[in-house]
Amino acid sequence: MHIVIMGCGRVGSTLAHILEDSGHSVAIIDRDPQAFRRLRAGFRGRRVTGIGFDRDVLEEAGIEAAGAYVAVSSGDNSNIISARVARETFGVDNVVARIYDSRRAEVYQRLGIPTVATVRWTADQILRRVLPEGAEPLWRDPSGRVVLAEVAYHPGWVGTPTRDLEAAAGSRLAFINRMGETLLPRTDSVVQEGDVLHVLAVETDMDRINKVLSSGPEEEH
């Protein structure tokens, strides 16, 4: 696949190297030619100096043959504009834009532009390392509303069908870690001792979900 990256900062240059090592062709755009010094000496991709939402610049980077476009410059507006040009003008379906203002993420999602809200994501990663396990979500959507989180549960839930646990908690059981293996819940799945449960839920529901699961099913019903 040919992939075009806008922004040759630390993130862009790292992505370029990883993608090239994975066998993809890469073109990277930056308005500052000095930024390309972050690329290793053996980088084989295209280096294009210019603005990432300029059509001529994008064409020079091979946007017309691109299977994906990534906008990771330091400017939110530039990232979104260039991602929209790649999507709407050149028909690139697989686009993603980095942003710093997470409050705007939901708006961008409605425009069909997947986003990575840098500040919120970074904060989550730090909190996951300094707080007790399970205290912070493993993932949250760009709007910040929906989270994937590990949940603790009362031993009384062992032996309970997962569908009953979901009904009691009012949330979706996303997956189970069991003896080092990741399993998707099935209609006949049962909670086993040692299972690590992960739910997908609206973040404001997490306190209620944790309260329900920290009580045994007998106490709940």
UniProtKB/TrEMBL annotation:
InterPro entries: K_uptake_TrkA, NAD(P)-bd_dom_sf, RCK_C, RCK_C_sf, RCK_N, Trk_Ktr_HKT_K-transport
Location of the RCK C-terminal domain: 136-215
Gene3D superfamilies named in the record: NAD(P)-binding Rossmann-like Domain (3.40.50.720), Regulator of K+ conductance, C-terminal domain (3.30.70.1450)
SUPFAM superfamilies linked: NAD(P)-binding Rossmann-fold domains, TrkA C-terminal domain-like
Keyword tags: Ion transport, NAD, Potassium, Potassium transport, Transport
Domain RCK N-terminal, first and last residues per copy: 1-118
Superkingdom of this protein's organism: Bacteria
PANTHER family registered for this protein in UniProt: POTASSIUM CHANNEL PROTEIN 2-RELATED-RELATED (PTHR43833), TRK SYSTEM POTASSIUM UPTAKE PROTEIN TRKA (PTHR43833:SF8)
Name this polypeptide is given: Trk system potassium uptake protein TrkA
Annotated organism of origin: Streptosporangium longisporum
Lineage summary: Bacteria, Bacillati, Actinomycetota, Actinomycetes, Streptosporangiales
